[in-house]
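ok trying this again, last paste got cut off
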Amino acid sequence: MPEYRNEPTEFAEPTQAEIRARTGRNIAIALGLVIFLILIAVSIVLRQPV
């Protein structure tokens, strides 16, 4: 099935502010994932029968 929409030929270069904002979001997401994984690991360890 052919694609009927036009493919973009020009791309906008992100500004420094946009790059900094994207980097900040990426760091926040990474920290959130790490904290979530630590909480899961701690809960698994604490639920083990002694």
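PB: full thing came through this time. The mean pLDDT is 91.
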